[in-house]
Specification:
Blueprint: H1 3-10, H2 19-60, E1 63-67, E2 79-80, H3 84-88, E3 95-109, E4 114-122, H4 128-131, E5 135-138, E6 151-155, H5 156-162, E7 169-174, E8 180-190, H6 195-198, E9 201-205, H7 206-213, E10 219-220, E11 222-227, H8 233-241, E12 248-252, H9 253-256, H10 258-296, H11 298-306, H12 311-347, H13 354-357, H14 368-390, H15 398-402
Parallel strand pairs: 4-9, 6-8
Antiparallel strand pairs: 1-11, 1-12, 2-10, 3-4, 3-7, 3-11, 5-8, 7-8
Helix pairs in contact: 1-12, 2-10, 2-12, 2-14, 10-12, 10-14, 12-14
């Protein structure tokens, strides 16, 4: 057996007592706590970014295809679903789904107030199952093959302002010349906690907007494109644009809602600074604690030198001792951090104020490559730092150290 490794095991905290055992436990505890907090921070950050991003994409798709115009109006210029892009986009394997839509400005008259809204018209190709998780009361609207059902979904924010509930019949006044109106039934209430949508958008039928605008049955205001991996949007954009008609434009949701995604990106900086501080403290503690252990074992170092041990052999003793502390701390830290994440993900133990945080509980994201990178980073940095205090061993004088008290 390697002599340095054997001695390191003999002076580990399981064999040692008193002060040494306490120092070992402090070292393991500080490293475990730092690693656990680091893992939880990335889990919460990733969960928050993913949840907000999914809400935006669930409402708008990853891209929108619209007819090119110079107008900044809420309503889109129509184009045919039989366009060249509609026929050729299936050649792109990363496009998961395409659905049609249109927007139209309207006024909702409640019992006491009038609210300006944007009605989003959806067609039979709309993914109702994906959107159903945001419906907190009632049901999704029914979209018949022929005609219209005159049903709408309201956000919880608009319903509260107008004192409306599921089952109420209301009048929608559409802003056009001449003004027109429709009598509709509220069949459901949704809530995303995002102001951009909850304060402005209601969900209606695409055919209703076609009828109001005198569009043909194949005309739409736009197409929403969903891809298989939203992290690759920047690389997918030029590939999709190659299939676009000359009079159509491609809009990324990340560009359309730039303020939301810039804000999510800024959160990364806060977490990186936080993780850096925690990592620095944990690694500094490891170095300081190992230095204390070396000072406590000064007499042992002097005795080993007097018996013929080299500085390299003695340094390896304390290096193995530090690695032992490191591995124990990392094992406990991973169990603690991942365990807390698991219970939060499964049971949602920690709630949030949805009005402030856009979600009702702390979300968790399982980004295993990041977790592995954090573990390897701590191993490499800590192992490098461990060599700093063990260099003191070469300065220890055998005679003086044996008499050291």
């Amino acid at each position: 057996m390697n002599l340095s490794y054997f001695i390191a095991k003999r002076i580990s905290f399981k064999k040692a007592g008193g002060f040494s055992a306490t120092i070992h436990k402090i070292a393991v505890g500080s490293l475990a706590l730092g690693l656990a907090v680091s893992l939880i921070s990335f889990m919460v950050l990733g969960g928050f970014q993913r949840t907000v991003s999914e809400k935006v994409y669930g409402f708008t798709g990853h891209y929108q295809v619209q007819r090119f115009t110079m107008s900044n109006a809420f309503e889109e210029a129509p184009f045919s679903q039989n366009s060249e892009f509609s026929q050729t986009y299936k050649q792109l394997p990363f496009i998961r789904k395409v659905q049609s839509f249109a927007h139209k400005a309207a006024l909702i008259k409640g019992e006491q107030e009038v609210e300006g809204v944007i009605m989003k018209g959806i067609g039979p190709d709309f993914d109702s199952l994906a959107f159903a998780k945001y419906v907190i009361e009632g049901r999704m609207i029914t979209i018949p093959e022929e005609g219209t059902s005159n049903e709408i979904l309201l956000s919880q924010h608009i319903a509260n302002r107008l004192l409306l509930k599921v089952g109420d019949e209301i009048t929608l006044y559409f802003v056009q010349d001449p003004p027109r109106y429709r009598r509709v039934e509220v069949v459901g209430i949704f809530q995303t906690y995002l102001e951009n949508f909850d304060e402005k958008i209601i969900i209606g039928e695409l055919q209703t907007i076609r009828n109001l605008n005198n569009w043909t049955k194949d005309q739409v205001g736009g197409l929403e494109i969903f891809v298989d991996d939203f992290n690759k949007i920047s690389s997918y954009t030029p590939l999709i644009e190659e299939f676009m008609d000359y009079d159509l434009k491609l809009i990324s949701s990340q560009d359309k809602f730039l303020e939301i995604f810039d804000w999510l990106s800024l959160l990364d900086n806060n977490v990186y600074v936080f993780i850096g501080l925690i990592g620095f403290v944990a690694i500094f503690n490891m170095g300081a604690i190992l230095f204390i252990l070396i000072m406590e074992r000064t007499q042992m170092i002097g005795l080993l030198k007097a018996l013929g041990s080299t500085n390299k052999q003695i340094r390896r003793i304390f290096f193995w001792n530090g690695i032992n502390i490191l591995l124990r701390g990392m094992a406990i830290g991973n169990i603690l951090g991942l365990g807390i994440g698991f219970f939060q993900d499964q049971f949602r133990l920690i709630p949030l104020d949805a009005a402030s945080y856009y979600m009702s509980y702390v979300p968790i994201d399982w980004n295993w490559p990041v977790f592995i990178l954090i573990n390897f980073g701590i191993i490499i940095l800590t192992a490098a730092v461990l060599w700093i205090p063990v260099m003191v061993i070469s300065r220890v004088d055998p005679i003086r150290s044996i008499r050291f008290d």
